[in-house]
Amino acid sequence: MMKKAKRIVILGSTGSIGRQTLDIVRAFPDYFNVIALATRGNLDLLTEQVAEFQPDYINYALPPGDSSHRERFKRIGCSYLPMEEMAALPEADIVVVAVSGGAGLDAVLAAVKASKNIALANKESLVAAGSVLTEAARKNYAKILPVDSEHSAIWQCLAGEKQRPRRIILTASGGPFRGFTAAQMQSITPEQALAHPSWRMGRKITIDSATLMNKGLEIIEARWLFDMPIGDITVLVHPQSIIHSMVEFADGSVKAQLGMPDMRLPIQYALTYPERLENDAIPHLDWARFSDLKFGPPDPVGFPCLRLAVEAGKKGGTYPAVLCAADEIAVDLFLKERLGFTGIAGLVEQVLEKHESITRPSIDEIKEADRWAREKALEIAGRN
Amino acid sequence: MMKKAKRIVILGSTGSIGRQTLDIVRAFPDYFNVIALATRGNLDLLTEQVAEFQPDYINYALPPGDSSHRERFKRIGCSYLPMEEMAALPEADIVVVAVSGGAGLDAVLAAVKASKNIALANKESLVAAGSVLTEAARKNYAKILPVDSEHSAIWQCLAGEKQRPRRIILTASGGPFRGFTAAQMQSITPEQALAHPSWRMGRKITIDSATLMNKGLEIIEARWLFDMPIGDITVLVHPQSIIHSMVEFADGSVKAQLGMPDMRLPIQYALTYPERLENDAIPHLDWARFSDLKFGPPDPVGFPCLRLAVEAGKKGGTYPAVLCAADEIAVDLFLKERLGFTGIAGLVEQVLEKHESITRPSIDEIKEADRWAREKALEIAGRN
Questions:
Q1: For chain A, what is the domain count?
Q2: Based on the domain organization, do A49 and A189 belong to the same domain?
Q3: What is the pTM of this model?
Q4: What distance in Å separates the CA atoms of residue B321 and residue B271, rounded to the nearest whole number?
Q5: N or C: which end of chain A has fewer CB within 10 A?
């Protein structure tokens, strides 16, 4: 008997992770059934995706009053649905949350409350609201499955293990500016920062990778995904990005997950878990090309975002939400060339210093902290 | 409530693996209870071990007629028992088979027939009689748990995985003579060959590591332990011995197990599985010391034993038994300086060439092939 196809909702279908998710769907047309697609704005690509995957529901951001597209989509059997309703569709087997930044939080929360399996590529939601989301997931038997390559690696290494590990070792490529002097850091342009050495990713996460803020956010994300204290999560720089992360167990044994740096592998694992499917489109690890894997400690002085994230993660409360929101503004200002590369950490730090955190915040308090941080970041940046 | 201690039988208690097994027992005195110890001859050390661990049964090889020791052991409540009976003791929770060479086969078979959990350090038994032992284990619900660091690594990587992997990647240190020229190989002395760069091991396995025969035997061992075709098991040279082996899955994801090169880690894992226990005596992997891990292909021309083992493994029948037995004689002759280093592979190859294999051999036919191979190896060596 044919197995029933997995019904997928993809929030953020035109972004980097969304498009690669559809690559996986394309590779296994009988295995998946796309039932809903949402995007923030790339309507041309969404139109193509709708024609190819024929979802029942779509969502996109358009200028108010423009209803012609909505009508056109409706004529081909495709209804407009708010993103939170998509995330909670009763027929959905898995919800891929690949929208970037703070915009993902409500969707993740809706999916969690609807007891969904959530393939989570939006790390900001978990960083900002980890305590609320993980508690709601436990109550509602929702599963948050990592899509980040590092967290997917940890998840794979934990398979079959009965005990809490001693330590998580997140590997980091170190970004394109590893070894730069303070003076060199000053003059980094958005163009330079967008050229990541190993991974093909969206703009926000590429800049976060260059500042190591991304690794800092990943520490907080790992803290919630695997219920580990921040102090037991360490970072190891590994420029080739072949070992995607490691887990050290009580007896000193370490497990690592390896592969070519290709996001389609962790995306596919989240979508097909606990199965693994042959996919010839994903390049295999060829040891003839990797005669030499390098490792080293991170540089918390050259990359203060890593330190800021660890501190915010340890303090908890609304600090991580403020970290995320301030970073989102800072990266945006950097991309618009209104802030220097080193100014990103500087701005985030100033916002964090001004914040009065709330312990055990509600989702509304987290959103309020997010709003406050964005406003404060813009205010400080405007003054400088 | 206290958990009941695991009752252990250790066959080969005075050898390298046996002594390290007792190190683990010493670290967790409440967790383990040694009920039987067997050794081929180191009576002084056995006497110490008996005093410390107070087993109910002992076994040792002594000149015929010498019964004074037996009486002395009996007075302290320690009875002499044949090794095969020890391996099948009804009260045993786990049987560690750490005798070296062909001598382990009967003990493993007895343990398998008695449905025991067997921590198997004697690879020769599985190489020579893999089909018989694994079939008997299946029928009798016995479990063969690997103690070799490579196979322990693979076993750990397979935990929680639902599907057969695509490929097993056995790592090899490459031995102390990696990169030697043919001329240099000719003049290698036993002393040089006994100085292994990474692992503390017995003499036979240290020489087998230097010729890469050990890696060849491990390929055949992996074939039986993990039910994988020989063609899906590859060797990757990794001189630092930090990655102990890897498994590649259907989706291209690779898992590796890492640790310091210390046999106590895989021994402990086999003894405590599925638990993992904190053991501060086992050194932890310190990434500050490993900034650079190297990998490369093996050299089948410089190390023909690897090729011989793969060929014997693929042909099957009684070839692997002959490979093991001839190698045991060849290594012994090399250690006695009656055969050169390169002569080991030469002698094994000549014996294999003269062998007429039996397909699907019985245990008696395997033993007969073993006996024939030893005789033939000595005969050929005597002629040269």
A1: 2
A2: no
A3: 0.95
A4: 28
A5: N
